[in-house]
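Q: I'm writing a short explainer about HAD-superhydrolase, subfamily IIA domain protein for a general audience and would like to include a description of its predicted shape. Could you first generate the structure from this sequence?
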Amino acid sequence: MVLTGVNSARDAVYALPAQRPTYIAHDLRSLHHNAVELEVAPQSVWRVDARDGTLTVSTNGDDNAGDGLSVVRAVAWAVWDAQLDAAHIRIQAADEQARNALKRWSLLSGVID
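A: Of course. Here's the predicted structure. Afterward I'll give you a sentence or two in plain language.
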């Protein structure tokens, strides 16, 4: 799935099983990138803990070398892996870096700013 404005990060995270992308990228230029880097899967820079319908995202390091979408890939994988009901998922940040990354993609629950 490319996030060109037609699709958003939220679309990927909350996609129905039959509509879930294998890869998430900014645009079609990503066709020239290593597919493993774009795969929806756990990401080394992010830790996502699922408990009682809440995902808590924290950082394990610096994501400056990536494309900024690793948090989206990590959260999408965690939602899908936990088989959570999209209507009842709460996503929260455990630290400032996670908060900023989640805000960038409008993935924080209950945040209006």
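A: For your explainer, you could say: The chain has a mean pLDDT of 86.
Q: Perfect, that's easy to follow.
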